[in-house]
Amino acid sequence: MSIQEQVAGTALLDRFLEAVDARTARVGVIGLGYVGLPLVLLYADGGFPVIGFDVDAKKTRALNAGESYIRHIGVDRIRSAFAREQVEATTDFDRLAECDAIIICVPTPLGAHREPDLDYIRATSTEIAKRLRTGQLVVLESTTYPGTTREELLAPFEARGLACGRDFFLAFSPEREDPGNERFNTRTIPKVVGGIDEPSLRAAKALYSTVINTVVPVSSAEVAESSKLLENIFRAVNIALVNEMKIVFERMGIDVWEVIEAARTKPFGFMPFYPGPGLGGHCIPLDPFYLTWKAAEYGTWARFIELAGEVNTAMPRYVVDRTVEAVNAAGRSIVGARVLVLGLSYKPDIDDDRESPSFELIELLQERGADVAYCDPYIPEARRGRKHDLGLHSVPCTAEEFGTYDAVVVSTPHSQFKDAALWSNVRVAVDTRNIVPRDTATRVIRA
After folding, report:
1. Which of 103, 136, 218, 290 could pair covalently with 145 via S-S, beta carbons 3.0-4.6 A apart?
2. What is the helix (H) or strand (E) element at residue 104, kind and residue range?
3. Would you say residue 400 has pLDDT above 80?
4. Residue 283 bears catalytic tag
5. Among the options 105, 283, 375, 397, which is catalytic?
């Protein structure tokens, strides 16, 4: 890059930083789900003009009408933000050209063979490239393998004849949303940022620093991409460990929950993780396999991650086996038995059912011949399963209703399910979350 080009790039960066500081920079957020929508609201609260982009017209219409489609994001907050003239949602991607900063928050699922599916990122990259102009900052937040920002965004952007760091800026900053977490939110969770180059890092750091309390700059986009994978792999591996310990201790007649509580009294060198019926959510069941796939490209194999995946993936079948044993022990065949699964969401007290193991529990129980129902105060209807359309509706959360089933399986520990009165008429409880009262007369299997 010539001296003249460097000077031009510096001037462009300075104008961007000035616009961010003055809150006149227009922020565009692509993907208005659990990650993107909180960012729209955060920048709106920060006084920025904001455009939210999504391919789903139902979402954009709802937001512009002041309606919320995510339960833990209140209607009042939506109405307050979208009542402002400078905040709107649209399906018109031509308006990307109006934005000074574009933040990408699209899904990164796995394919049929557990390979990374970057179709959403690639489609978004194409839409941005068509409209990319000088002075824009683009930040990818979608979780992915190291190198994605450089490989999937930088190349098509520079194919337009624009140079990163001189004409536009490009960075990666992993999302760290935790839906329903009352202790931490988008503003208070530290934000890791890695740029393709130094000007890009400065631009991204400035943008996030206006609305987020702590921004953590790192040396490259690849380090930022890797940090998110390590966070989720750490959790996946430790959950697999405690799930395996649960199975071992069950055979020994030892209560794994009591073991964990005893171990956590150590003030150093131990962090408690808890067993469950399998992994759920948009991160932990998927993200580790992005790294295992990429590692193979470099001739190395992430065996620890693969083993953890095997353990966690097997947990729904383990829970179903324990349920069948419990129903049989009560003198009933699983064929024709009425089984109630508690909770469809992947974590307590939210309406997010992405990758929830409850769907597999229901389908496996149905395959065994059980008549399965579910109860979830946050999700009134269960249409999509993992293999077929479930076509189920949530049953009432009452002791009378629970008492009509041969077995009740706890999958998600919603606060409502912890009411001791609910368990007064239950015949058999299969508790994967340790929420059934210890002093209940119900026969409890802690699976």
Report:
1. 290
2. strand 101-104
3. yes
4. yes
5. 283
